[in-house]
Amino acid sequence: MRSLVIVESMFGNTRTVADAVAEGLAPAGPVTVLDLADAPPAPHVGVDLLVIGGPTHAFGLSRPNTRHAAEQQGAAHRARGIREWLADLSPCLPGTAAAAFTTRIPKKFVTGSAAKAAARQLERHGYRRAAPPEDFFVLDTVGPLRDGELDHAKAWGRRLAASLQDRTREGEAR
Predict the structure, then answer these.
(1) Which of 75, 78, 98, 154 could crosslink 50 through cysteines, CB 3.0-4.6 Å?
(2) Around Cβ 72, how many Cβ atoms within 10 Å?
(3) May I ask which residue range the UniProt record assigns to the signal sequence (predicted)?
(4) How many Å from the N-terminal Cα to the C-terminal Cα in the chain?
(5) What is the Cα–Cα distance from 65 to 108, expressed in whole angstroms?
């Protein structure tokens, strides 16, 4: 199973989670982690699983104004985010699986998730949902990650790999 993890990260926390997810996926086959700036417009070619990760900004995917606000807090400049990349995404090959995750602050009564928005967009492009969107928590805008989140990310990666391997076995048995 070949996996590609594409990540938008402002302060490094989402990238750290992406690397941990990749570590969980690795026993199932080759995994590549790419910064969004390096992501191809047709990432599904030669890939069995596409994983998209990004921070939740203002209850969803980042926008130019929320990225600018992050820059004001010390984040690296990002001309494009997952929102824009998904808008330009090529339709996927039949059967390509995808999953999405986000990093966000654990506040009660805060709704919205970049992962849920990304998962909906991936499905609109024809991707098959490999798992429900997943949230990983940072303690503040710039981090750090909440204790246990890297183990959570590795475990999620292992579950993604196992679910796809189970589906492959089911398909072969038919």
Answers:
(1) 98
(2) 8
(3) none
(4) 19
(5) 24
Do 103 and 136 form a contact (C-beta atoms < 8 A)? yes
Token output for 44: 């599904």
User: Long-range contacts: 147-152, Cβ < 8 Å, 24+?
Assistant: 149/17, 149/20, 150/16, 150/17, 150/20, 151/20
The three-state secondary structure class of 169 is: helix
As a whole number of angstroms, the distance between CA 35 and CA 8 comes to 6
**pLDDT tens, position by position, 45-103:** 899 999 999 999 988 999 999 999 999 999 988 889 999 999 999 888 888 999 999 99
* Long-range Cβ contacts of 69-74 (<8 Å, 24+ apart): 70/10, 70/11, 70/141, 73/141, 73/142, 74/11, 74/142
Q: Model-level pTM? A: 0.93
- Whether the Cβ atoms of residue 11 and residue 59 lie closer than 8 Å to each other: no
